[in-house]
Amino acid sequence: MRQPSVIARRVAAASVSLVVAAGAAACGPKDSGAKGSGGHSTPHKGGTLTVLNSEPQTDFDPARLYTSGGGNVPSLVFRTLTTRNRANGAAGAKVVPDLATDTGRPNKDATVWTYTLKKGLKYEDGTPITSADIKYGIERSFAPELSGGAPYLRDWLTGAANYQGPYKDKKGLSAIETPDERTIVFHLNKPEGEFPFLATQTQFAPVPKAKDTGTKYEEHPVSSGPYQVVKNENDGEHVLLKRNPNWSAATDDQRKAYPDTIDVRSGLDSSVIDQRLSASQGADAAAVTTDTNLGPAELAKVTGDKELAARVGTGHFGYTNYIAFNPTVKPFDNPKVREAIAYAVDRSSVVNAAGGSALAEPATTFLPNQKSFGYTPYDPFPAGASGNPAKAKELLAQAGYPNGLTVTLTHSNAKDFATSPEIATALQDALKKAGITVKLQGLEDNDYRDTVHSVKTEPGFFLAGWGADWPSGGPFLAPIFDGRQIVKDGANFNASRLNDKSVNDEIDSINKLTDLDAAAKRWGTLDRKIGGKALVVPLFHPVYKRLVGKDIRNVVISDWTGVLDISQVAVK
């Protein structure tokens, strides 16, 4: 899941390092990339690309990064078994081979996955990349001192639940076999048809055991990609990348690697980033950002300037902002109350509070409106764009509240136009028309996350958001609605405490499918089934608008990440 502030879960979207934030759509929009000279001029090699970010690229170690599709800046240094297709819109939501010759060969029930490495793969020092290096890279991601990566491997690999990494357990993981230097085999404890998506995570990047320096590895990780780290200051605040002389485009058809140098500068105020990109003076003319969106005020200024408007890229990433209910708290244990709130919601006012239709798309489905997720249009409680307070009052009366009721809505005080006061106030005004008095409880961002993700403190009614670790319904629906993923002593995301055997069984059944198109259709059907229970109220899918410098060329924004792909960009 990715946090709205950055692209990555356990932040949703430090984007892209869930990870930087992104958006969602049924297909790539017509303005999916920046246009004008920046979007369409022929790209060429050379020059320096500057990246201006608010969040530092911390923990630059493939074991510790939580990235989907290989990440953005990390993907320039770390290649993985598979990666995202580097293309605009919906075409970019597909998984493709990277270090491997294909996306993986499963056995009959998808519990064993085999990969063969391409020939001629080399590290920055010219030594060959082997299957043993990938196995070791995965194993070190289990070390407690290198935590932070995606949790799936511990859950999926046979016998891996209690593994503590190669520093403590020299025997390694028997679930990963390397019969020769180019073959690697994974044994899973249950069918997982989406394993090729997981193999895009940076934990699948090769690490040469002889060069592993433990927690200091992030200072100079050994590159398998087109660029190598020559400087990493203040834990990712300033990262300087130069070409890897031993990377070969013959083994990598995804990364274009046009610039000679990539200079990543972080810790900047978002308004300063937008100002610098707008002015495009000096090095800033060849600059981009991977984590700073145009807000409503900035977008209004840009829209009125033809030259600036041509330099705005539009991104869509699988993310949904929604109302969450905890049915163990009254009156939300009553389905009629939850349904009444669903009918009372005025999505047009919520969209306006989120920055307007250019920055938010109204949602009635929990799954984002992209084909790869299995998006199936439905509205279990159709109330139109502005809500249906009369229907809401009718349901409240049926629930035993003919004179209305008073509830408390918990939200974040962070100014993110997602779970923040603007959205809460819009809902407060809409529900008042239905006889529901809403008291607002705003919490500072860290307190908000700790409160709403703990079963001990979770409120009955709060604002939430969820993003996908990869573009599929599985990592979207399962963490929120699979009863076996309810976490009692840690971060819990199944707020509704749904533990429905039929839902759990269908999740398992879909996970067995290696035909991802067939799986997507069933995720859409499951979304509709769950949606009728009024356990959440989808509000909107965010849209991301990002400015690029005037000398930027070849803007590519996929529906996988929703942000400009650094591996494709060129400078004038």
TrEMBL record:
Domain of life: Bacteria
Region feature Disordered, mapped onto this chain: 29-58
GO biological process: peptide transport
Keywords from the UniProt entry: Signal
GO CC list: ATP-binding cassette (ABC) transporter complex; periplasmic space
GO MF entries: peptide transmembrane transporter activity
Pfam annotation, one family: SBP_bac_5
Endpoints of the signal sequence: 1-26
TM spans (from-to): none
Boundaries of every Solute-binding protein family domain copy: 94-484
PANTHER family for this protein: ABC TRANSPORTER SUBSTRATE-BINDING PROTEIN, PERIPLASMIC BINDING COMPONENT OF ABC TRANSPORTER
Protein name: ABC transporter substrate-binding protein
Naturally occurring in which organism (per UniProt): Streptomyces griseofuscus
